[in-house]
Amino acid sequence: MACSLKCGSYFSGFNSNSMASTSKYFPPSSSGFLGKPLVLPDQKRGSGNCTCKSENKFSVQAETACVSRSMRWWEKNLKPNMVKIHSAQELVCSLQNAGDRLVIIDFYSPGCGGCKALHPKICQLAEQNPNAILLEVNYEELKNMCHCLNIHVLPFFRFYRGAEGRLCSFSCTNATIKKFKTALAKHGSNRCSLGPAKGLDESELMELASAGELSLSSLQLPPLKQDSMEDLAIMRSMELSGLFNKADNNRMKLGKESALL
User: Fold this and answer.
1) pTM of the model
2) What average pLDDT does range 94-119 have in this prediction?
3) Average pLDDT for the chain
4) Given phi > 0 = left and psi -120 to 50 = alpha, else beta, which region is 195?
5) pLDDT tens digits, one per residue of 89-99
6) What is the mean pLDDT of residues 254-258?
7) CB of 9 within 8 A of CB of 26?
8) How far apart are CA 145 and CA 100, in angstroms?
């Protein structure tokens, strides 16, 4: 945590040779705080002489203040059911492990004015709906993943539940928050799903895997359709082919280097 240190200090010491105390005054510093000048309290100014309680001891009298950097807006007022997502793997696992609970993915960007204005209301709605899970995705940190999911406008929301998978998706702002409230009222009621949670579409999983954002082997995927299985086989064969080609190129390069030697 970055802090700015502001001091108004006296340093008083004892001169063992002249047996006389000396002091030096360092003036306090001032800074702006919440639009108003902030001046930290200082020691009372004296005549320039200080007394020491005991010989050969150095005393420091200082008053310091550390003003913490204010929290970033997307970190403020987060509720227990709001979860920050750090990777595509974490996003997929969170959706699959949510069971029958409603899951809302909130795509935002720190530099998005609409996202910042909407954030307090989203936190309020999250508090009012504790059974829902809100997954917070920072577009700037996970840009490649967002491209694979075709997220091109912010703020953007996706609603998921159990075996039904994606229920709806839309963009809204403070002026159109009614979209969010309507979707929440429609899909927020508790209900049971017949089957495991679906999460992302198969095509999106493939896209994330091909972009190197996801390892399909570590996921518990539902049975794939025949065409999806064929696409997965082709993708894996292409990966293996690329590895073999790279190994052949390295072997040829070593052969040429040994010939030159």
Assistant:
1) 0.61
2) 96
3) 75
4) left
5) 999 999 999 99
6) 60
7) yes
8) 25
Cα–Cα distance between 168 and 159 in angstroms, integer?
5
Does the N-terminal peptide bond of residue 155 adopt cis geometry, omega within 30 degrees of 0?
yes
Token readout for 219 is 């996921």
CB-neighbour burial class of residue 37 (10 A; exposed 0-12, middle 13-18, buried 19+): exposed
DSSP 3-47: EEEEEEEEEEEEETTTTEEEEEEEPPPEEEETTEEEE---PPP-S
CA atoms within 13 A on the CB side of 161: 19
Contact of 34 with 45, CB cutoff 8 Å: no
List, by residue number, the catalytic residues. Answer: 112, 115
H helical segments located in the chain: 88-96, 113-128, 143-148, 177-187, 202-210, 226-260
Q: Could you tell me the two tokens for 124? A: 């309020």
Decide if pLDDT at 50 tops 70.
Answer: no
Question: Does position 238 have pLDDT exceeding 70, yes or no?
Answer: no
